[in-house]
Amino acid sequence: TKLVHGGVRYLEAAVKKMDRAQYHLVKEALYERGVFLKNAPHFADRLPLVTPIYKWAEVPYVYAGLLLYDLLAGKESLGRSYVVSRKEALRRFPMLKSEGLKAGVVYYDGQFNDARMAVTLALTAQKHGAVIANHVEAIALEKSEGKLCGARVRDALSGEEFAIKARGVVNAA
């Protein structure tokens, strides 16, 4: 989802079950979300989301829960939650299921650009001595004395194959 969220779904368990661990998880996630959005505004933005409501009786429950979420964020809050009509919810979020929709509660979380972050991490690693390559696919792992020591790769653009030696190998497939 590429969300930088504060764990809104854990808040219900924290309140309903009086679960301190879930409560602290939400508090910590909201704090970390705030830090991330402040420290990396070029990676992340505030994102309005909506919780669709299909029963009138759920409006105060969901709205109260999302207001609590806002309060727990404190100074790291991204904006106050609010209720919108059915018509406004569908105008702003046209992919919602319209049948039976009564209203929506809009709240804010964060969203980050993972491609931009990946490029920045690769360039930072390169600055610290790493060799980076794009458009290569691993075709085999290399071993020496029974231990992984690199990979055999193929450049997907040129078709050239070559070995990459490494002290550590991470399979993130």
Blueprint (SSEs and pairs):
Layout: E1 3-4, H1 8-16, H2 20-39, E2 44-53, H3 58-73, E3 82-85, H4 86-92, E4 103-112, H5 114-127, E5 136-144, E6 147-155, E7 161-165
Antiparallel strand pairs: 1-4, 2-4, 3-4, 5-6, 6-7
Helix pairs in contact: 1-2
Key structural traits:
173 residues; four-stranded antiparallel beta sheet; 5 helices
Please report which band the strand proportion falls in: under 5%, 5-15%, 15-25%, 25-35%, 35-45% or over 45%: 25-35%
Radius of gyration: 23 Å
Overall number of strands = 7
Helix content: 25-40%
Unreliable parts: none
Order of helices and strands: EHHEHEHEHEEE
Overview of this protein structure:
The chain has helices at 8-16, 20-39, 58-73, 86-92, 114-127, and strands at residues 3-4, 44-53, 82-85, 103-112, 136-144, 147-155, 161-165. The strands form two sheets. Strands 1, 2, 3 and 4 form a four-stranded antiparallel beta sheet that branches. The protein is α+β, with helices and mostly antiparallel strands and 173 residues long. The chain is built from five helices and seven strands; from the N terminus they run βααβαβαβαβββ. The longest helix is centred in the first third of the chain and has 20 residues, at 20-39. The protein starts with a strand and ends in an 8-residue tail after the last strand. α1 (8-16) packs antiparallel against α2.
